[in-house]
Amino acid sequence: MGLHRKGVGMEREMRRKDRKVSDEKAWEMLETAEWGVLSLASAGGEPYGVPLNYACQGKCLYIHCAIEGKKIDMIKENDKASFCCVVSAKAMPAKFTTAYASAIAKGKVEIASDEDKRKALKLLIEKYCAGLEKEGLEYTEKLYGITEVIKFSVESVSGKSNI
Fold first, then answer.
1. What is the 3-state secondary structure (H, E, C) of the chain?
2. Other beta carbons within 10 Å of 71
3. pLDDT at 10
4. What is the dihedral angle through the alpha carbons of 157, 48, 162, 25, rounded to the nearest 10 degrees?
5. C-alpha to C-alpha distance for 67 and 17, rounded to whole angstroms
6. Between the CA of residue 28 and those of 20, 51, 101, 106, what are the distances in Å?
7. CA distances from 11 to 6, 25, 43, 108 (A)
8. What is the dihedral of CA 132, 134, 140, 143, to 10 degrees?
9. pLDDT tens per residue, the chain (163 residues)?
10. What pTM was estimated for this model as a whole?
11. What is the pLDDT of residue 2?
């Protein structure tokens, strides 16, 4: 019943086009946000969203995690994913609105190759541990065998802003 509702399973145009930002601006938001929410679904349709930190390079997002767990299980079942980041949000009660800027990426997820895993861990250290790159790389090397990296290949990106 629910799968046949209008808009479910098909792309809709953005309703508030006056708040749409360029794809370049949406990418800039993805590159600069501190964290985001990865949304996955199992083969059976069970939804799962998890806030996490990440790094960007090219048209990919990289996310570190344990070598086993719910994210890994779901990725093996269904490679489609969405990722949302909010770079700013402030309630404006007197105007009955929120000032915000956010971006959403859609694409496919997979377990990263060894080459991408090493690159991603370096990117994460550079983003979140500036000035501690040497120590960070030593740390990630110690935990390399129990660390996984998810590669999110972005197929489309969009963003909105009310700032």
1. CHHHCCCCCCCCCCCCHHHEECHHHHHHHHHHCCCEEEEEECCCCCEEEEEECCEEECCEEEEEEECCCHHHHHHHHCCEEEEEEEEEEEEEHHHCEEEEEEEEEEEEEEECCHHHHHHHHHHHHHHHCCCCHHHHHHHHHHCHHHEEEEEEEEEEEEEEECC
2. 20
3. 59
4. -20
5. 41
6. 14, 19, 11, 16
7. 10, 21, 20, 16
8. -110
9. 444 445 455 566 766 666 678 889 999 999 999 999 999 999 899 999 999 999 999 999 999 999 999 999 999 999 999 999 999 889 989 988 888 899 999 999 999 999 999 999 999 999 999 999 999 999 999 999 999 999 999 999 999 988 8
10. 0.86
11. 44
- Which two three-digit tokens encode residue 108? 């496919």
Q: Which two tokens stand for residue 62?
A: 């990289």
Q: Position 39: which residue type?
A: S
What are 95's two structure tokens? Answer: 């105007």
